[in-house]
Amino acid sequence: MAEQKVAAYICQGCGLGDRLDTADLAKIAQKEGKVAFAKEHEFLCNADGVQLIKNDIAEGVTHVVIGACSRRAKTEAFSFPGVHVSRANLREGVIWVRPDSDEHRETTQEMAADYIRMSCAEAKRVNIPAGNPNHGGNKRILVVGGGMSGMTSALEASRAGYQVVLVEKSGELGGWANKLYKRIPFNEPFNGPQDTGVAEMAAAVQADGNITVYTNAVVSKTGGAPGRFAVEINHNGTPVAEEVGAIVQATGFTTYDTAKLPELGGGKSPNVVDQAGLEALMKAANGGAIKRPSDGGEVKNVVFVQCAGQRDDTGTHLPYCSGFCCATSVKQAMYFKDANPDVDTTVLYTDLRMPGNNEDFYRSAQNKGVTFSKGKVKSVEANGNQCKVAFHDLILNDENAAIADADLVVLATGQVPNAGTDIDAWTQAETESNNGQNAEAAQRAQELKVVSVLNLTYRQGPDVPQLKHGFADSHFICFPYETRRTGIYMAGPVRRPMDIAQATEDATGAAMKAIQAVENAAVGRAAHPRSGDLSFPSVRKEGCTQCKRCTVECPFGAIDEDEQRYPLFNEERCRRCGTCMGACPVRVISFENYSIDTVGSQIKSVDMPDEFDEKPRILILACENDAYPALDMAGMNRIEYNPFVRVVPVRCLGSVNLIFITDALNSGYDGVMLMGCKHGDDYQCHFVKGSEIANYRLSKVDDTLKSLNLETERVATYEVAITDIERVPKLINEYAAKIEEIGMNPFKGF
Amino acid sequence: MSEMKYHNNFLREVEERVEEGHMVKMCMQCGVCSGSCPFGPHWAHPPQELFMMIRAGKREEVLSSDSMWMCTSCYQCIVRCPRKLPITHIMHGLAYLAKREGKVPKGQPTAQFGQMFWDNLTKTGRVNELKLSLSLYFKDGFGQGIKNAMAMQSVGLGLMKAGRLNPLEILGGHSIKDKSGFQAMLKKAREIEDTRRKLA
Amino acid sequence: MTEVVATNQTILVVGGGISGMTAALEAAECGKDVVLVEKNPVLGGRVSQLYRYFPKMCHPVCGLEINQRRIKMNPRIRVLTMAEVTEISGQKGDYTASVKISPRYVNENCTGCGDCAQAAETEIPDAYNYNLGKVKAAFLPSKMAHPQRYVVDPSVVGTPEGEKIKAACKYNAVDLEMKEETLQLKAGAIVWATGWKPYDAAKIQPYGYDRFSNVITNVEFERLADPHGPTGGKLLRPSDGKEAKNVAFIQCAGSRDENHLRHCSRFCCTASLKQTQYVREKFGDEASSTVYYIDIRAIDRFEDFYAKVRADQSVKLVKSKVAKIVQDPKSGDVVLHGVDTEGYHRYANSHDLVVLAVGMEPSVKGAGVPAEVAADASGFLIPGDVNGGIFGAGCATNALDVNRAVQSATASALRAIQVINKVASVEG
Predict the structure, then answer these.
(1) Same domain, B69 and B134
(2) CA distance B106 to A192
C-alpha cells in the first residue's frame, strides 16, 4: 500500500472565506493536524477545485481533509476512488449555526479550527480498506421450501443465470398450492377462481437445468456466511453437502388448528371445516357438487365465518389479520355459486378486506349472488346434519341473528408462520440454562431448537430472528428485505401472512436480494445500509479477554466463537455498524476506516480551553443517519446553537465505546451528548439494536461518573429523529445552559 | 328471539319480481344512500338497511314497511351510490311489489294517492285533475274534504282563471278516443308484467 | 448538453420515488448500470412528503437519507432530474428512450448556499407542500433535496428579477440560457415506477373540496402535521388558522367507487388511523378524531396498529360513507351528514376540519408509459413480464403501501436484470 499522505483543503466559498480566517485554518491543519500540505480554494467543489484535489491525488495524496460543507453535501464531487475523505463541516456545522457578528467571530473560528483538527486526526488514523481477501465467492442460491414462493424464487434466480438448490420437506413440490382447487385471480377481470398453475410451475422447476431439487429433504445444518454457506441437507435420511452463497427461506405457513375453536364448531362436526378443508372437499368433488361431509347430503346453504381465531383481542387466538382469507372465502363461495346458483352462500364478516383490484373480485361475488353480512359470529353449533350459526348482525343490530340450517360452515382461519426457532425465546432459555446447569431451561431450549428450519451454527441461534407473532418479517418500512442474518432472506407467508399473488412477487424480490448478496460477498462488499463498504472488522486476539460481549451484542449474529472461545468474525455477515467495537471493553475490535482510534483521536484533538476561559466544551456523538442530518438541516435553516459543542458523527450509537466518554471527560470536556435513534418496540435504528444496546451500556455510566465525583448530567442520551430539526438545537442550547449551571469539568487541564 | 334465516329466498324473489331488483345484492352497506335521502329522517328503514333486510330474508318486514313509499325520486342516492345501484327505481319496485302483495300499511298516504291517480287515469285515459283533487281532499270524509278544499281555494281559483282547470270536468270530463282499446292495452301490459315478474 | 452513457446493458428506471430509487439501487448494488429518471427536481417522490409512516410512526425521510446516501455513493447510478421519458421504441434488450429534460436554470456549480433565494422576490406555490405554502422563485425543493441544487422557476426567467437572481450567485450556477433538451438513451430493460397521484378530490361533489376551505385531503394533512410543512407542524385549519382538535377522516374518498376509482387504494385506512395519532400527538386528551369508514382494511400486522388506535379514547370509528359536508360560513366548522349503518343512526356531526382519505390513481392511465403496454381498467400496469422488457414497479402496478411498493420494486429490478444478463451473455 502506498505511503499515507494527508492533504487538507479549505474552501472559501459559501461565505466561509468571509466568516472564517481560512489561512489560520490551513495553518492549523498543517501545524497541528500534521498534514503534508494545506491549500485554500475560493470554490472547492467546482470543476477547478476538484481538479486541484485530483492532481494532488495523482501526485500521491491518499487521504484528503476537506474543510467545507457537510459530508452530506457535494458527496459525489468529493468522492475519489481509493482515497479517504474526511469532511470538516464548516458550513452547516459552523457558520450556518452561528450569528454573523464581530462578537461571535472568535467562538465561530474556534469551532471551525476544532473541526479541522478533528478531521485531520481522523484522516491520519484511517486506513484505506483493502478489501477482505478471504471472502467467499459461491454464487449459488439455496431456496428452502418448494411451495409457490420457493419455486418462484428458484425460477426467477435461474432466469437471471444463477444456480439454485431447492430443498423441499415433503415428497413433492407445490406446497399449499397443491391442495388448492383454484386460486384467487391475479388479473382482470377478477370474475372467478383461476387455475393455480402449480403443476406447470413445478414442472418448470424440475426441467430447469440451473435448479437442483431435493424433495423429502430438510436443512440439517447451515454454517458459514454469505458467499460461503456450508449447508448440510438431510435428503431422505442421507446427508448431502452443498455450498451456496445466499439463502431464501420460503417455508410458508401452517393453518391455525380449528380444534382450538370449539365455540365455532371446530372439531365438533364434520360439517365445520376450515378453508383448507373446503379446498380438500372441492378437490375430492373434482368439479362436481360438494356433498355434506356428515352424511353425503346435498349442500344448500354454506356459511363462511371470517376472522375465525384471528383478529382476536382476548389473547386466546391469533391477534393479527391474515389478509388473504376474505378473498379466499369469496373464491370458495364462488365454487358453489358457479356450480349451482341456487346454493345459498353467506359470508359473515366484520371488515371485508379485499384491497386493490380485489374490490372487483368482491363485486363479482356479489354479482354471482354471494351474500355478505356484517356480523360477529358468536357460536356455531352442530344440530344433526346441520349447524346453527349464531351471530350479532351489526347492520340490523340484531344480537340474536342466526342461520339455523347451514349444511356447511367454513371457518376462515389464519396463517401460522413456519419460521423455525423463536430466537428470542431460545436465547432466553439458553441463558437461563447456564450451560446446562438448569435442566428445565436446557430442555426448553432444546424443544425450541427442534423446530429449526435452517439449523444455523451461529452462536446467536439456529434461525433468523422473528419480528412479531412468529413471522420473520423486516421491521423497516423502507427496507422490507432487511433481516438480521445477512444473506438470508424471507419470502412468502413466513414473513407476513399473504396470498399467492403477493407471495410470488415477494419471492421474486427475495431472489433479487439473494443475488445481490452473493455479488456483494464475491467482492467483499457490505450489504445495506452501508452498501459498498469494503472494510471489515478485525480483532486483536492477543488483547481479547473472551468476555463475549461482541458475540452477544452483534445485531446480525456475525460473530461466532472459535475452538479457543475467541470471537470468530464472519466478515461477510457483518454490516459494519461497529456495535462490536462499541461493546469491547478492551478495545481490540476495529475497522480499517472506523476504529476506537479514528473516533477517539477526533475527540482528543479538540483544543481544550482552560477552566478560566469560561468556554466549556461539549462533545456530541451523533448517529450519522438521523441525528447528524437533523443537525445539518438545522444549519440549512440557519437555526443557531451553542458554539461550544463539537459533533462527531458515529455509524450507530451502538458503536460508541465507553472509552469515548471517559476519554472526553478526562480530557476536559464538560459534557457529552449522545444522539441516537429511537429504541424499543418501534425502534428506528438501522442496525436494529444499536441504539438500544447503547442505551443499556450508558445506563451504567452514572455509576462511573459518581465514582469520579462527577455530576451524572455530564453525560446525557437523547433519542433524536431525522426530523428533529428544530428540536436538536434546542436540546443543545438547553444542555449547554445546564452545563453552565453545574460548572466546568474539574478534570480540565489535568 | 327472532329466528331469521338469512336465506336468499326473498332476495331471489326481489330479483325476479322487483324492477332492478337484481342490483340489491350489489349493495356494500356503505350507507351513503341512507344519509343522502332528504326524507331520510322520516323513514323507518333507509335503503341500505332495506337491502340488508332483503338479504336477511325479512320479507314481511320489508313489504309491510312504509319506507319505500317515502321516496320522492330526487335521485340523490343514485348519483352518490358507489356501486351504482338504481336505488330510486328499486324503491318504487319494492312499493309496487308490496302493493301487489297487499302488504301496504293501512292508510299509507302515498299508496292511497297512487291508487287514486291510477283509478282516475285508467277510467278515461286522461287525468281528470278536478276529480283527482277532490277525491284527494275528501278521502278522509266530507267535513275534512270541505276544510281541505277551502284551504286550497285560492290555488283552485287561480288555476281556473289561468284556464288550467276546467270546472265542467266535474261532469265526466274529457277522455281519449278509444277507451276500450286503452283498457285492453292496460290489461295486456299487466298480463305481460305478471308473467315476467310472476305476479299473478 | 447532458452527457449520459447508456447501452443495451443499462437499466432505465423511470420515476425517482421510493420504488424507482429502490429498483435503481437494488440493480446497481448488484453491479448493473442504471439511469434513474425523475420528473421533479429532486428524488424522493410522495414518500418524502409524508410526516410519519404507519404502523411504526417513524419518519420516511430517515429511509430516504439512507437511500440518498446509497445513491450518492454509487457511481453506477446516473440520476437525471426534471426529466421525462416521452417516447420508447425498440424491444426487450434493445430499447431507445427519448428523455426530455426541462431547464432547471441552475447548473452543477450550485453549492446550495441559498443566495439566489435571498435575491428572489416572487413567490410561487410550494409543490413540496402540495401548494399549501409559497416558496421563492429560486428555491431548494426541500431540506432533504437530492440533488441538493436550487431551481429557478421559469416565471422569472427573462425578467429583471431573473437577472438579479443570476447576479446574486457567486458561482455562476444560475444559467438562464438553459434550454429544454431531449436525449436518446439506450436501455436493455425499463423499470416503470412513476407512482401515483392523489385522486382529484374536487370531483367528489358532495364533499365540497373545491368549495369548503376546511375540507382537505390526506396528503395535505401530512404536510400540516410535518414540522417542515407550511404550518411548522401545527394542525391549523385553512379557514381561520384555528387549531383543528376535532378532525373527521372520510375513508374511500374516491376509492371503491364506480363513479370515481373502482379499486380500493389499500393504504388509506391505515393512513387515516395513523393520522388520528397526529391529532393525539399534538393535542393530547383534547384531541378528537372520527374515522368514517366502510370497512377498515388494516391487514396483517397492521391489525395491531388498528387495535392500538381503537384503544385510543380520542378516536371514534363510524361505519358510514358520509353523504355530504356543509361548512358553516360563520364558524368555519364543517358538518358531516350521514347514517351510521351499524344499527341505523342518523348524524349531523360538527368538526373543526375534514380530511378526505383520497385514493391512489396511477400517474396517468396505463401508468403513462409512452409505448404499447398492458394495463388494467384503472390504468395500473400489469405486473410481471407481459410488457416485454418494460416492468412496472410500485404504485404504477397496483395500489400499494410503501412496504409492498418496495417489494414490488425489488422484484422488478430482478426482472430487469434477467433481461440485462441475457443481453450480456449474447454481447459477451
Answers:
(1) no
(2) 46
Residue A358 grid cell: 380485489
**Is the predicted pLDDT of residue B3 greater than 50, yes or no?**
no
Is the pLDDT assigned to residue A1 strictly greater than 60?
no
Nearest alpha-carbon partner for C394 in C8, C11, C13: C13
* Amino acid type, A578: G
Residue B1's pLDDT is: 34
**Residue C207: φ, ψ to 5°:** -90, -10
Beta carbons within 10 angstroms of residue A439's beta carbon: 9
Over range A264-279, report the average pLDDT: 97
The x, y and z cell numbers of residue A401, run together, are 341473528
Q: Are residues B78 and B124 in the same domain?
A: no
The one-character DSSP state at C205 is: G
Residue A496 near chain C (CB below 8 Å): yes
Q: Does A528 touch chain C (CB under 8 A)?
A: yes
Contact A161, A267 (CB under 8 A): no
Give the gap in angstroms from C-alpha A136 to the nearest C-alpha of chain C: 16
Q: pLDDT tier at A750 (50, 70, 90 boundaries)?
A: low
**CA closest to C293 among chain B residues:** B30
Give the pLDDT mean for A452-467: 97
Q: What is the pLDDT of residue C228?
A: 87
What's the mean pLDDT when you consider all of chain C?
Answer: 96
CB atoms within 10 A of CB A314: 6
CA distance C348 to C351: 10
C292 to chain B: closest CA residue: B30
Q: Are residues C73 and C203 in the same domain?
A: no
β-strand partners of C184: C98
- Collapsed DSSP state (helix, strand, coil) of residue A646: strand
Whether C273 maps to a domain, the answer reads yes
Q: Are C230 and C328 part of one and the same domain?
A: yes
Give the residue ranges of chain C where pLDDT is below 70. Answer: none
What gap in Å lies between CA C47 and CA C401, rounded to an integer? 10
In whole angstroms, what is the distance from residue A410 CA to residue A668 CA?
72
- Give CA angle at C35 (C34, C41), nearest 5°: 140
How does pLDDT run across A402-427, given as a tens digit for each residue?
Answer: 999 999 999 999 999 999 999 999 99
Return the pLDDT at A130: 85
Say whether A478 and C383 touch across the interface (CB within 8 A).
no
How many C-beta atoms surround the C-beta of residue B110 within 10 A? 15
**Residue A484 to chain C, least CA–CA distance (Å):** 17
Task: Please check whether the domain covering A141-252+453-522 is classified as CATH 3.60.15.10.
Answer: no
- What residues contact A474, with CB distance under 8 A and at least 6 apart? A467, A480, A481, A482, A483, A490, A495
Residue B4 in this model has a pLDDT that exceeds 60 = no
Peptide bond into C383 cis (omega under 30): no
- Mean pLDDT across A347-374: 97
What is the reported pTM?
Answer: 0.96
Instruction: Report the CATH number of the A1-128 domain.
Output: 3.40.50.960
Beta strand pairing call for A589-590 and A538-539: antiparallel
- Cβ–Cβ under 8 Å, residues C88 and C371: yes
Among A656, A494, A487, which Cα is nearest to A556's? A487
Count other Cβ atoms within 10 Å, centred on residue C234: 14
User: Residue B123, exposed/middle/buried by CB under 10 A (0-12, 13-18, 19+)?
Assistant: middle
**Mutate which of B6, B50, B83 to disrupt the A interface (most A C-beta within 10 Å)?**
B6
Task: Give the residue from B71, B100, B129 where a domain finishes.
Answer: B100
Task: Confirm whether B4 is domain-assigned.
Answer: no
Closest listed residue to residue C41, CA positions, set C154, C182, C119, C132: C154
Q: Which amino acid is at A621?
A: L
Provide the pairing of β-strand A559-561 with A567-569: antiparallel
Sign of CA dihedral B77, B83, B89, B90: negative
Number of domains in chain B: 2
Query: Does the beta-carbon distance from C339 to B30 stay under 8 Å?
Result: no
